[in-house]
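Case study 2.
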Amino acid sequence: MPDVTFLLAYAALGSMSGVMAGLLGVGGGLVIVPVLVWLFSLQGFDHTVIAHAAIGSSLATIVATSVSSSMAHHRRQAVRWPLVMQLSFGLLAGALSGAWLADQMQTAWLQRSFGGFAILVSLQMLFTVRLQPTRGLPGLAGMSLAGYLIGLVSGVVGVGGGSMTVPFLSWRSVDMRQAVATSSACGLPIALAGALGFLLAGLTDALMPPWSTGYLYWPAIAMISLISVLLAPFGARLAHSLPVHQLKRVFAVLLLLIGLKLLGLY
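Prediction:
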């Protein structure tokens, strides 16, 4: 078991990701992955597995947060479950493919991939990029393809896909509230398939530390999942009393700096 200092750090990370998810609607993976890269480095993980362990563990934590979030949205009858079903096959296949692709990449390139993704999300948040609804939803083949692409990217960078699923559904004329709720439910197949992919991919990697299965590091997963689920409702309550728009811009700038750092640009 890791030193108690790191367990407390994982708990602090869980509280931060949970509150920010509730407050800003930002997926936990965008917070969890870069912090885990830093913590795993401090713990002395072999540098060749740090990014893989951070991304795989992040996906595993999203399982719990996605269940909690989608249940909350379901109680408000906002989740469009038929759309979740239409996207799910593609999401599952895409997330598994993303985990396989990540396994082929060296840590440096995996970190750069996350860095590039973080920059794109930060720019989207800073400039409030929204696709105007112009058309209806595609058929099953189109939904499966969209799900596959969303799952593929999510599996590589360790996120729940909300930053892609919400714009896609909104562009396809789904009400924004329903798009957000449906996206929260779509995080579950991404997280399950992606985490399973990283678990299987890392089974033969002897460089992972104790308390790991494949590229999943259980002490971090357990602490982050528990605390983030508990504190997400608190973040949602804060959203009614804090300047969310300004806070989202501050987070976007922080995310931009993280992305540039992971790309080695400063």
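The mean pLDDT is 91.
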